[in-house]
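Researcher: Next sequence.
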Amino acid sequence: MRQFRQLKTVFAIAMLMLLLFARAASAGEIIVSAAASLTDAFGAIKQKFEAAHPGVTVTNNFNSSGILLKQMENGAPVDVFASADQQTMDQAAAKGLIAPGTRRDFVKNALVLVVPADSKIPVSEAKDLALPVVKRIALGNPDLVPAGRYAREFLTAAGLWETLAPKYIMGTNVRQVLDYVTRGEVDAGFVFATDARQAGAKLRVVREAPSKTPALYPVAVTAGGKKAEAKAFVDFLLGAEGQRILGSYGFGKP
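Model: Next structure:
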């Protein structure tokens, strides 16, 4: 039943975003679809980019990389796509959704295991998640959320993926997982280090959870995007000011 509700939620979100972006963007507007973990950093970048490019307006659209890909597949207008993983961007390229030669890696991140700030449960290592006292573990749905795939890799390497399966509470994006943890609705969760940093004192980082696949974020101009404005946005991300802003939110250089 929980999985059915999650599928309904994903479908509803996808349809809502399609309705919101069904109109054509105005001449000076670019739509940037970006992974949910980029929400705060891209909010700051929007302001700086618009100030440096008078007449250009950035409309940000945040969600899990997988949902953003589905939106583009269904015809949602997007000028720039920024994913939290290489796999989703590979899929976008294979489907002809991004402009050839525009793909660039622009930041890297790390996955961390976190618990609510006031948790009294003795979790210090991944193996502690198997303790009976740990009832609920939040992570992104691996089919849609890069952070969820990284968590699955980490737990699989630790020999815990199948063992912990009954405890999983799947989120549709990493920010939903973060909310589960900060509200104390779960006993532990896996989020990006940048998300944990934004949550501050609302949670406690137990440890980094390295996966076999590096959390390297790519960005690209879409096949149907406004090429000049979209390229300018990608260039800004990779430039000194864009990298400074991203670094201030905890992202590493690629």
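Model: The chain has nine helices and ten strands. Residues 2-108+216-248 form a domain with the D-Maltodextrin-Binding Protein; domain 2 fold (CATH 3.40.190.10).
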